[in-house]
Amino acid sequence: MGFPDRIERTVQPAHPPGKVWAALTTAEGLGAWFGNEATIDLRPGGSAQMKWTEGHTADMRVERVEEPTVFAYTWHIYGLPDDDPRRTYVEFTLEPVGAGTRLTVVESGFAQLPDDAHGKAHDGNTQGWASELGELVDYLNAA
Amino acid sequence: MPPDIEAIAEQVFAALADPSRRAILATLAAKGPATATDLAARLPITRQAIAKHLGLLSEAGLVTAEPGERRRVRYRLRSAPMQVAQRFLAALARDWDSPLDALADHLDRSASGQTTTPLHEMRGHHV
Question: Are residues A65 and A124 in the same domain?
């Protein structure tokens, strides 16, 4: 079957790495092609955010800044519950090719196993709701 | 990658491929733990077929049987395998092709001095 842990794409824009770098690492660039609005604190550990007009927001944590060859961040996985702590790692690599750039993006970490995948005691949401509802009952009984 | 993550996802998808098992899982998700008899009352499936499906789902780790007297055993959904399958789907749903097209477009347009329009906006894409 093959679990897709890693997604990789390579494109070759006819523009020099410096220009591609600016599109990837500035609020102006990210807000133009990726999101509709962006902010970025460009340093390892810095925060970045993209917003889309339809209301979706992506919060990123900058991981690698090696101008103009490597830019990487981690972010929450779109489509998973907001409180899921696992994140994927996205790395852009820029390589000059003639007058252009070979840009590779790798996103990895989709196959991380949930902490409780084998756990019997803690069973995710079902257990969570059961115990929270139990607490509510206790609270109401005590009142 | 843990060797069994693929097996876990496969069991979820195999379980979901059958409409009766989908209905059983959906009912447990919506209404909480239930006995085979409860499920038979709620679903257009015979109790015998439900027992068979529950056995299979239990072996696959998708439901757990709560301890109890034989006919009163309640089955509870195990969400952990679903979370593994969710990550498989998240990888399939992850769209890098559209943003990268939009990036190429942005670079070309800004080079020629035109205003950029993000491609995902034009296509109504959600990242």
Answer: no
Tell me what ipTM this predicted complex has.
Answer: 0.77
Q: What is the residue-level pLDDT of chain B in tens, covering all 127 positions?
A: 555 888 899 999 999 999 999 999 999 999 999 999 999 999 999 999 999 999 999 998 999 999 877 778 999 999 889 988 988 898 888 899 999 999 999 999 987 765 545 544 444 444 4
Q: Could you say which of B78, B93, B116 has the minimum Cβ distance to residue A33?
A: B116
CB contact under 8 A, B76 and A126: yes
The domain total for chain A is 2
Residue A99 and residue A128 share a domain: no
Burial of A36 (0-12, 13-18, 19+ CB in 10 A): middle
How far, in Å, CA of B100 to CA of A55, rounded?
A: 21
Name the pTM for this structure.
Answer: 0.75
Same domain membership, residue A121 and residue A104? no
A140 in the same domain as A88 = no
